Amino acid sequence: MQPQQPENNSTQNIFSWSLIALVFVYMLALNILMPMHRDDYGYALIWGTLDHLSSWPDVFRSLYIHYMTHGGRMVAYLLLDGSLYLGKQWYNPFMAFCYTALMILIYWHSQRKISFRFNPYILLAIILFAWLGLPHFAEVNLWMAGATGYLFTAVLILAFLLPYHFALLQKPLWRDGFLAVIGMFLGGILAGWTIENTAVAMTLATACFTLYFYKKKALQKWMVSGLIGAIAGTALLVLAPGNYVRAAASTTKFIYHITNLFAAGVETLFYVLPVVLFLVFVWRYLLLDYAKKKNILAAGQENAKNPLTVSMALLAGVIVFLLVSYVNDNFFSQWLGNALYNQAAVKFGLATAKLKAQLFNTMSGLEEMFVYLLTVTFIFRYACAKAGLRKKDIKTISAKISMREMLAAYPALYHAAAWIALAVVNHFVMVASPRFPARASYGSVVFLIIGAASVFTIPEVRQYLLDTGRKKHLAWLAGVILVPMAAATLYQHVVIHREDGRRMAYVAQMAAQGVTRLEVEPISIKNRVLRHVYFEDLDNRVSKSHLCDYYRLEDIQLKGK
Q: What is the 3-state secondary structure (H, E, C) of 104-170?
């Protein structure tokens, strides 16, 4: 292969910062368009009352009541309650900055250097992985109650881990002085007092870092103070009296703690499938590369075969058919739903109005889900065929090469493996929770993306993926995926913003006149499979109850429901 051109030239720098600016502006627009929703209305009241937050003492009183009766995520909810009191005009740019900062922090951790000069293609890969992989994207990055709990806390945690990580890399960020000791102690409290599973995983990682430095006789005072702060913050989070109040009211059996892990894992895998397949592709490529270096493969075995096989053509045809159905009122899923209902539910005496509604609600996203899954699979199979990564060769190589050999040959794999292991730990910490919504895997996905992006630090992978032709293909592929999805997401948020704004103006006017029962138009936009749009309308119990409390209504109904 020809040597790569230097990365840090002015053109790449302009490209990188254009990407960063575009991410910030786009997320700012989505935050502006995302209205108050569901729990936002509940947190805009002093907890447990119907009184609106009207001062900072109200904010802290609400946080205290919440801490004593409901849960301990005080750092996240201080930002949420404060933003609801001050107004969303301050929240919107701050959270757009947080999302942009998350991309940069992932880059720094994965590439093992802190610099404001970025490789735009690696940055683009991170942006793509985050867009597809972060579970329930709008719920955890745009919705106020969700983004403060997940996006904001992930930024705090990754920022806190930076000094430890770079000390391990022998690239210290500061001297072991008084300010570093105090700063890391306070930073540990803030990072630990965030969200349960990721805070626990972060504290375990911090303890491992500290133990390593102690054994290497390189321990510094700020490392210890940071660990003490992280333990203290996590304790304040986990031992909050409100957690015990909720636990006492829970009747969930422990077996469901276990089954929830697997259910959430399967759902999370749906989102991170591109990241996982990227890692599989890189692993296969490294196996092939090592085999060629050791002459394990016979001559000519590594040659690429024609990627356009009959099975690939059939797969492409299925994708096209599903796309046609998707843009024509989902005729395939409608037909399939009717067939299942009439031939199964009716035939076996299970037909009810509720079952029919649930079935067709599930089927409504069928085309979009399978287009996503099949397209990702198609790209993976095409890339493997193009790179000559034939299954039989990989199987032969795997039997002859041990994991230890691979780690010795490509030491940067340790870095990727450590982040992936942290993602797994973060996932299984949730066994302590009776519920595991997929959004709680946010931290796990962030760690996984860092692990995936870190493979670019392996010289052979970097050389292969970022040569002149392939990096252009990467940019083209990212554009084909991101641009249509981003445009559709923006359009849907514009519609929601317009319809909800008009509806809420009417509700506020009627409530001010003393009306306590209302009927309003439903929002026309529904959630999409990849969840880049999040809006649970007022036929949802939580959405309705919080809005009724906020406006002191007795009831609010959707027309036609």
A: HHHHHHHHCCCCCCCCHHHHHHHHHHHHHHCCCHHHHHCCHHHHHHCHHHHHHHHHHHHHHHHHHCC
